[in-house]
Design goal:
By secondary structure, the protein is of the alpha+beta class. It is built from seven helices and seven strands, in the order E-E-E-E-E-H-H-H-H-E-E-H-H-H.
C-alpha cells in the first residue's frame, strides 16, 4: 500500500458501519472508491473533507482495484452556493450523475474539466438549467452520438434551417422536413451557441424560458433516442420545475 495525492470531486457518499463513509471520487483519470474512517464523528478531522460535492486534493492509502483509505486533504472548492440551494444542488447532482455514467467507461480527462467548470458556473449563480443543457450537449461527443450542428440542412446541404431533427441528428430545411417538431428560430440558434460555449470564458448568458424549455425537451428526446442513459435525477428535476 502506498500514499498518493489525487485531485478529485466527491460525487457520492454512503454510510459505512456506524461512523464511516464510502466515498466515490471522480478524478481526471478514473473513479475511485475510498473509505473515510470515522468521518461521521463530530470531532473527526475528515468530517469536512469527506462531504459530497467537495473538490479537493486528497491524500489516500492507494490500493489498485480495491478500496482506498482517505488520510486527509486540502479543499479547493466546496461549492457553498450550490449545497445551500435545492435547485442548484439538484442540477449539480444531475451533471455529476451524467458524467459519472460516461466516465466509468472512458479515460477522457476533458470530462473532469467539464464537470468542475460547469459546477463552478452554477456556484457563480449562472442558470443551472442552461449549464446542465450545455453539459448534456457537450457530453454527446464523448458518447459518440453528437448531432451535426452545422447551421444548414444536414440532408440536402441547403443553407436554410427550418428545425432540428432528432431522427436525422441534424438541422433540416423546410423541403426536407418530415414530422419533426418545429422549434423556434431562436432555439435553433441558441442550441448552436451552446455547442460552442467555453465555460472558462463565459461571462454571461441570458436565455428566455421558452428557448430553455425547447432545448431541454430536444435534449431529452435525443438522449432517449441515442444514449440509453436514464438518470433518476433528471426525473426529479422535472418534478421540481
Amino acid at each position: 500500500m502506498k500514499i498518493v495525492e489525487i485531485e478529485g470531486l466527491i460525487i457520492k457518499s454512503m454510510k459505512f458501519k456506524e461512523n464511516s463513509e464510502i466515498l466515490t471520487i471522480l478524478t481526471k483519470d478514473n473513479v475511485l472508491s475510498v473509505i473515510a474512517k470515522g468521518s461521521l464523528k463530530i470531532k473527526s478531522n475528515l468530517r469536512m473533507i469527506s462531504q459530497r460535492l467537495t473538490y479537493a486534493k486528497f491524500n489516500i492509502y492507494y490500493k489498485e482495484d480495491s478500496l482506498c483509505t482517505l488520510i486527509d486533504g486540502d479543499i479547493i472548492n466546496n461549492f457553498k452556493n450550490i449545497i445551500t440551494d435545492i435547485k442548484k444542488i439538484t442540477y449539480a447532482s444531475f451533471i455529476m450523475d451524467l458524467i459519472y455514467q460516461i466516465k466509468k467507461d472512458s479515460k477522457e480527462e476533458l470530462l473532469f474539466d467539464l464537470l468542475i467548470k460547469s459546477l463552478t458556473k452554477i456556484n457563480e449563480d449562472f442558470d443551472p438549467l442552461v449549464i446542465a443543457n450545455i453539459v448534456e450537449l457537450k457530453c454527446l461527443k464523448f458518447l459518440g452520438v453528437e448531432p451535426n450542428l452545422e447551421y444548414k440542412c444536414g440532408i440536402c446541404g441547403k443553407n436554410e434551417v427550418s428545425t432540428i431533427s432528432v431522427d436525422n441528428a441534424c438541422y433540416v430545411c423546410k423541403n426536407c422536413l418530415a414530422n419533426e417538431y418545429k422549434y423556434s428560430e431562436k432555439s435553433l440558434k441558441v442550441l448552436k451557441l451552446y455547442s460552442l460555449v467555453d465555460f472558462e470564458n463565459l461571462k454571461t448568458i441570458n436565455v428566455s424560458n421558452k428557448v430553455k424549455e425547447e432545448i431541454d425537451n430536444f435534449l431529452d428526446m435525443y438522449y432517449d433516442e441515442y444514449t440509453g442513459i436514464y438518470l433518476k435525477t433528471k426525473d426529479f428535476i422535472k418534478k421540481i420545475s
